[in-house]
Structures are given as C-alpha cells and as structure tokens.
Amino acid sequence: MPDGEQRKRGRPDTPAPQGAEGQQDAQEADAARRRRRAQFLRELHEAKALRDRVQPRRARAARMRQAMRMRTFRW
Question: Is the overall model pTM greater than 0.85, yes or no?
Fold first, then answer.
C-alpha cells in the first residue's frame, strides 16, 4: 500500500510502541471509541423514536412489513 494511503487511513508508518505506555494508549483509544459509538447509538435510537412519533403512518407500515418478514422467515 503506498504511503499516502496509509496516512489517509490514520495508520502510522512505524509500529506502535509495545511497552506499558503503548498498551495504555491503546486501551484509552478503545475506551474513547466505545464512548463515541455508544453516544452515536443513543442519538440514532433517539432520532428513530422521533421519526416514529412524527410519522406514525410510516412507522406502522414499517412495523407491519417487519412482522410480515418475521412470519415468512424460514429456518
């Protein structure tokens, strides 16, 4: 992979340090990613609930389609 593509994807050219400090940084980065993901999922759920409240006919139709898919699903 060319160097430019590596930098675009946020990957360093050199490997990360493997000491205790490197592990702690990785754990903090993972924790931050999980926090951002949890917040995103909360906001997504809230947006879907709002959409269902303001468009009840569309929400009911979507529920009916989902129920039909579940009834016709075969194992």
Answer: no
Contact assessment for residue 13 and residue 6, using Cβ atoms and an 8 Å cutoff: yes
How many CA atoms, within 13 angstroms, populate the side-chain half-sphere of residue 51?
9
The tens digit of pLDDT for each residue in 6-65 reads 545 555 555 555 667 778 888 999 999 999 999 999 999 999 999 889 998 988 999 999
Residue 68 φ then ψ, to 5°? -65, -40
Q: Are 50 and 59 in contact (CB under 8 A)?
A: no
Cβ 13 vs Cβ 3: under 8 Å? yes
Q: Hey, what's the torsion of the CAs at 64, 65, 66, 71, to 10 degrees?
A: 90
Q: How many CA atoms lie within 13 A of 75 on its CB side?
A: 0
Task: List, as own/partner pairs, every contact residues 41-47 make where C-beta atoms lie below 8 angstroms and the sequence separation is at least 24, other chains included.
Answer: none
